[in-house]
C-alpha cells in the first residue's frame, strides 16, 4: 500500500505554487478513455481550458497512465519535443 509507505509533506499543502505554467507554456494532454478516477469530460475540459496543443485519448482503463501505457506516453512526449524544437 502506498499510503503506508509514503509520508506526506505539509509544505505541499502550505506553500504557494505560483503562476500556472500552462498559461504561458505549450502543453499536451494525454489521458485514458476509461480513467475511473477522473471522468473523461473532466479531462477534456481541463485540456481545453489549458489550451492544450494536442489532446491524446488512449484506449484503456487505468488511472496510472505512464505505468499502464508507457510507450504511448513516450510517443506523446516525443511529439511535443519535436513540436517545440
Automatic annotation (TrEMBL):
GO terms for molecular function: catalytic activity. InterPro entries: AB_hydrolase_1 (IPR000073), AB_hydrolase_fold (IPR029058), Sec-Metab_Biosynth_Hydrolase (IPR052897). Residues 15-76 form the AB hydrolase-1 domain. This is AB hydrolase-1 domain-containing protein.
Amino acid at each position: 500500500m502506498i499510503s503506508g509507505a509514503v509520508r506526506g509533506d505539509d509544505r505541499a499543502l502550505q506553500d504557494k505554487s505560483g503562476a500556472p505554467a500552462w498559461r504561458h507554456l505549450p502543453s499536451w494532454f494525454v489521458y485514458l478513455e476509461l480513467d475511473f478516477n477522473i471522468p473523461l469530460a473532466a479531462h477534456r475540459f481541463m485540456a481545453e481550458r489549458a489550451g492544450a496543443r494536442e489532446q491524446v485519448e488512449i484506449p484503456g482503463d487505468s488511472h496510472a497512465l505512464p505505468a499502464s501505457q508507457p510507450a504511448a506516453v513516450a510517443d506523446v512526449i516525443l511529439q511535443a519535443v519535436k513540436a517545440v524544437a
